[in-house]
Amino acid sequence: MTERLNEIIDGNLRANPGARCYWHAGTWHTREDLSVLAGDCETALRDAGFSGGQRLVALMPNCPTALALVLATWRLGGVFCPLNEKSGEASLLKTLNLLRPFAVVVSSSVRKELADAITGAGWTCVPCPEEGILPLFTGAPAEPDASDLCVIFSTSGTTGDPKAVPLTHANLIDNCRACLEHVPGLGPENAFLNVLPNFHAFGFTISLTLPLLLGAAQVLVANFMPPQRTLQAIAEAPADTLLLVPAMLNFLTALLERSGRRLSHIKLLIAGGDRYNTQMDSRVTAAFGVPVLEGYGITECSPVLAVNPAAAERRLGTVGRPLPRFELQLRDEEGRVLESAAEGQSPLSGEGVLWVRGPSVAAGYYRAPEVTAERFAPGGWFNTGDYVQLVEGRIKILDRVTDIIIVGGFNVYPQEVEKVLSEHPAIQTAVVVGTPAGLSGEIPKAFVIAGKDANVTAKELIRFCKERLAHYKVPREVEFVTELPISSTGKVLRRVLRQREREKSENKANKN
Q1: What DSSP string runs through 283-343?
Q2: Are 103 and 224 in the same domain?
Q3: Quick one: which of 25, 208, 296, 302 could link to 175 by a disulfide (CB 3.0–4.6 Å)?
Q4: Which residues of the chain have pLDDT under 50?
Q5: pLDDT digits over 490-499, tens only?
Q6: Which residue range forms the structural domain that includes residue 477?
Q7: CB under 8 Å to 159, separation ≥6 — which residues?
Q8: How far apart are the first and last CA of the chain?
Q9: Shared domain check, 426 and 343
Q10: Geometric angle at alpha carbon 491, from 488 and 496, rounded to 5°
Q11: Residue of 361, 233, 385, 228 lying closest to 302 (CA atoms)
C-alpha cells in the first residue's frame, strides 16, 4: 500500500502531542493543537460533502488554518490546491476553470472584489479565519482525481493560459526524504522558518511539509514584507533553519547590516528559487553566522533537484549535486542525448540541457496532454529547460532555455507579457527578457518596436500592463528599438538581449 503524507504526519502528532509544532503571532502551539484544528476542519469538509479525489483551492497566507486544511484535505483523500491571490482576477478564474474545485477557501486578507468575482463565476467561495475553523458551507463535487494525488501547483503557461503540476504523496515523500538523506543538518530538533508562500512549491514542500513529516517545528510568517517583521520572527521564535529565495536573503542581509546586528543561532541557511549572487556571499556569511547553501529546484521535481549539502562541501556558484534517486542526462536543444548517467554511476561532466527522472518527478501536467508532450518524454524523462554545466557531478546553471524570468522567486513567462503588450494598438513587436535588478534578482524588461507613425511612451505601456497583469509580471523598463537580434531561422535571440543587459549591469556596478 502506498504511503500517505497524512498517515506519517498524524503518527508524529500522536507520538508526542505536547511537543511544540508551530509558532504563530508570537506564540508556540503544540502538535495536539494542530491535530485538533485539523480534526475540526476535517469535520467541516466532510459535512460539506468533500470526499476522496476532490480538489480544495486555498487562497491563504502561511497560518495555522492553512496547515490544518492541508492535513484535513489529505485525511479525506483530497487534493490541496494553493493559489496566489495576487496573480490577477482573470488568471485566477482561468485556473479555477482548469481545477474545477469543490470549494475555494479565502482568508480575510483576500480582497472582497476578488471573493465576489469567484462567487460570480459560479464557484463556492468560503471565507475563513487564519486561526480558526471553516464555517458551515456546501461544496460542489466534480469529477475526482486519482487517489494518490496530494497537491496541485498552478502557474501561467507560456501563452498566459494556466498550467498546473499535479504531485502525488509518493512524489513529496521521496523529495522530503531525499533532502534529509542529502543534507545532514536537517533534523527533528530544527525550527524551520515558513515564510515562503505556500503556493510556491519550495515553500510548500520544504518549509511546510518537511517539518511535519520530520516531526520538527516551524515558524509561520504570513508575508515576508516588511522584512523587519520576518527578522523579528527569526529572532524571537527563534527559527534556526532558514529557507529563502535570494531576493529575501538580500533584504535581510541589508537590514542586518544597517542595524549592526548579527545572528548567532542559525544552523542552516538554504537559498533556492533563483540565481544566488555570489558577490553577496561574504556579507551573507557575516550577517547570519553561517554560509548559504545554494540549491536548485523545479515544481515538476517536487521541487528540490540539487543542493550544496554542507558548508565544507559547497562549491560557490554551483547548486551542488543532485539529490538521491535522480538520474541525469545532458541533451542538445533538439533533445538528442549527449551524456547520461544513472544514480551511483560516475558523475557527468559537460554542458547541455538538463533532463532528469526519478520518483520525485511528476508524471505530466494536469489535464494537458499536449503541454505534457512538450516537456516530458517516454521513459519518465523531464526537460528542466535549463542549460547547465556539470563538473564532477555538481550543477552550474548557465542559462534558462525556457526563457522564464524569476522575479523575487516567482516565475514570469515572457510570452504572457508579450501577448499583453502586443494588444496595445501602437505596438508592432514586443520581446520581454529578465534583467538584473539588485535585491529583486531580476525584473522584466520589454524591447518593443512601435508601429509606423505610432506615438506611445514607456509610461503608457507600463500602465497598460499594470491594468492587465499581476504586479510582478509588469515590465519595469521599456526600451524602444527599431530591430531585434534574429537567428538564421528567424527566431529572436533572447539570449543575446539578456547578455547585453547583464553586461550593462556589470559595467554600471564597476563604475560605482
Answers
A1: HHHHHHSS--EEEEE-GGGSSEEEE--STTT--TTS--EEPTT-EEEEE-TT--EEEEE-T
A2: yes
A3: 302
A4: 488-489
A5: 567 787 888 8
A6: 405-511
A7: 415, 416, 419
A8: 61
A9: no
A10: 90
A11: 361
Place of cell 517516454: 378
* pTM to 2 decimal places: 0.85
Please indicate, yes or no, whether residues 330 and 441 belong to a single structural domain of this protein: no
pLDDT, position 451: 78
- How many distinct structural domains can be found in the chain? 2
User: DSSP states of 124-137 as a string?
Assistant: -EEE--TTS-PPS-
C-alpha triplet 397, 184, 238: angle, nearest 5°:
95
Evaluate the CA torsion angle 46, 49, 52, 57 in order and state its sign.
negative
The string of pLDDT tens digits covering residues 383-419 is 999 989 898 889 998 877 677 788 887 878 787 888 8
- Domain for residue 400, yes or no? no
Same-domain pairing of 365 and 409? no
Using alpha carbons, select from 386, 366, 447 the residue that is nearest to residue 414: 447
Q: At a CB cut-off of 8 Å and minimum separation 6, what does 100 contact?
A: 55, 142, 143
Whether residue 332 is found in the same domain as residue 235: yes
Q: Are residues 367 and 421 in the same domain?
A: no
CA-based nearest residue to 275, from 505, 477, 82, 511: 505
**Length of the chain in terms of residues written:** 512
Task: Yes or no: say if 85 and 95 are a contact pair by the CB < 8 Å rule.
Answer: no
Is 397 a domain residue?
Answer: no
439, 407 Cβ separation under 8 angstroms: no
CATH number at residue 295: 3.40.50.12780
* 50 & 183 share domain: yes
User: By three-state DSSP, how is residue 60 classified?
Assistant: coil
Nearest-angstrom CA–CA distance, 150 and 216: 21
**pLDDT for position 488:** 44
Residue 138 counted as domain residue? yes
**Is 92 part of a structural domain of the chain?**
yes
Torsion 158-294-250-218 (CA) sign? positive
pLDDT at residue 299 in the model: 95
| 315 CB-near residues (< 8 Å, 6+ apart) | 308, 394
Amino acid 297: pLDDT: 95
